[in-house]
Structure formats: C-alpha cells, structure tokens
C-alpha cells in the first residue's frame, strides 16, 4: 500500500512518541509487536506512516530536522527508540495566536516554551506548505486552551484539501458547523481530544459502565491527575481548562443512565509536579451503593507514561483517516471518533464504539 503522509502541528511529547513508534515497529513482525490495537489496518502497517511537514513555535525546534526536534526541550517523554533516522523534514515556524501560554515563562527553560524569533507563518504559508509536502492529513497537537490556533489550523487543512485529526480539546469534529464544512469538501475529520490507550478517562468510563451493568448506584466520583510535562504546566492556567474539563467530564457522564449533579463529580487536571516529567498519575475514587443501599467505594491509582499512551490510539486514527480518504468518505468519522476520542460528536459506550470501528475498518459502515 502507499505511504500515509502526515503533517503535524505541535512537535511536543505526543508527536515524539508517535514518530518514535513508527520507527520502533519498522521491520518487526506482527508476533513481535506488542502495544498495538491493529498491526495491519486495511493493508497499512505502523511503519507505513511518514511525516512530511511539521510546524511549531518553539525556538529549540523550529529549523531542526523533525528527528532532532522531537527530542528537544521541553519534551521529556520516554525515549524508547533512540537513534531516530533523519527525516529530511524541517520544522517550520507556525502561527502563534493563543498557542503560547504566557504564564509558562515563569518556569525554568527546560520546562517552558521559548518563542522563536522567526516571523510567524501566514495562513497562505501554512496552506502552501501542506500542499507542497503532499500531506494527506494534519494532526493537531497544540496545547490545551489553544482555541483560536486550533480553528486556524483546521481551516488550513480544509483549504489545503486534506483530512484533520484533532487530538486536543477544542471542539472541531463535535462542532456541527465545522463538521459540515469538512463534509461539504469531502474530507474526513476525527476528533475531539484523544482518549488514551489505557488512561484515566477510559478506565473511569469502563468502571462507570461496570457500576451500571451490575446495578450499583454511583453517587459521587472524582478523577484527579498530576504530571510534569508541558501539558500539565500549561494547564496551571485555569482559564485554558474549560474545554478540557468539559471533554473529560462528558466522557464519563455519557456512560451513566442519569448524569451526576455537578457537585458530585469532579474530573480534571489537578497539579503540575515537575519531577514526574511525562509520567501521569491518576487518583480515582468512586462511591456507590450495592444491594440494600449498602455503601461501597473504589480508590484507584493509575500511573502511565502519558504520551506513548496517546500514540497507541493516534496511530490507528491516522490509518482510519487514510481508509476514509481511499473510500471517498468525508465529514466526521463517527465510529473512530467515538472509539478514539473523549469528546466525539456522538458518545457511544466503548464496547459499541469498538464494534462500530471494526465494522468501519471492514467496510461494513460508511461513516
């Protein structure tokens, strides 16, 4: 099959893990490849993905080959594929807009953004770069709270005639107006806000569904998360968190037969702990009542490396997006969005979303 050509905006930890993974699985066999939901997805293997364009605004990344930029500060995720080969793709200066959290300038250089001195790219510059690169889709890895910047790049993808995968919590796929624009142009979009391979949200959803199936009344719950990467540092500014909290909370509320009152559910990032780096720790509590209204509770601590957890999902989202392009399917990919994302246009229970996505892959659903 042809190579899948991707463009990336935001060359951070998540992009680092994704690109390491593409190289990591190169030359391996299916029997030797752990950590994947699909080895062969409609003929596309993980190693068949190629980055052809990348955009960032950090001085330590702009102007470098992507293979070098992904290991530049403030990136701090696990290096599981050292010695990445050069890609021949140079990270270009992007558009700043609200993608630059000013409060992060109060922290040491290893943890904060360093804004590049280069002139910002215009929309025409971005569109031309996407067209010239031959990219088939654009992956959005901008920081949480980059509302204006996310919409800017979604517009660039539309103008360049390519698909869009929205991995962060600005509502593009789940916004009917944006969804219609992609449908009208016959371009696939998957979003919004990637649901990690085995992270806090998917674990919370599965347990909430277990309560429902077993007749246990969930009375109250919280999910508190700490981490030491730039994502958590960025989210110390609570003004940037509105869409993130909504995305994570609705992902859990949608599983319940009756949503909890706002006072009985709290889900969202809690604090930045520098030395945790890309390790994310989730503290989850669920209080409920069993037979006879007898109380019970679950306390769970989950520790995961945040960015590889994301990449394990995005590597399938990329291939589903390419399958849609092959089949001439435009607009929101409902099934992959429900399975891969926290805030899809249509929330579906995870077992059903998995089944629907498998049907989409086999060509039994024309999302």
Outline the structure in words.
Helix 5 (176-184) links the parallel strand 5 and strand 6. It is built from 11 helices and 11 strands. With 367 residues, it is of the alpha/beta class. The chain has helices at 13-24, 66-69, 123-133, 147-160, 176-184, 200-213, 230-234, 242-253, 306-327, 334-340, 350-361, and strands spanning 4-9, 49-56, 92-93, 137-140, 163-166, 188-190, 217-227, 265-272, 279-289, 295-305, 331-332. The strands form 2 sheets. The protein has a 7-stranded parallel β-sheet with strand order 3-2-1-4-5-6-11, sandwiched between helices. It has a 4-stranded mixed β-sheet with strand order 8-7-9-10.
Summarize this, please?
With 367 residues, this protein is of the alpha/beta class. The chain contains 11 helices and 11 strands. The mean pLDDT is 95.
In total, how many beta strands? Answer: 11
Order of helices and strands: EHEHEHEHEHEHEHHEEEHEHH
Shape: globular
The overall pLDDT, averaged over residues, is 95
| Strand proportion | 15-25%
Given the structure, what is the number of helices?
11
Structural class: alpha/beta
Across the major sheet, the strand order is 3-2-1-4-5-6-11
Percent helix among the residues?
A: 25-40%
Largest sheet: 7 strands, parallel
**Unreliable runs, pLDDT <50, ≥5 residues?**
none
Cα-based radius of gyration, to the nearest Å? 20 Å
Amino- and carboxy-terminal Cα gap:
22 Å
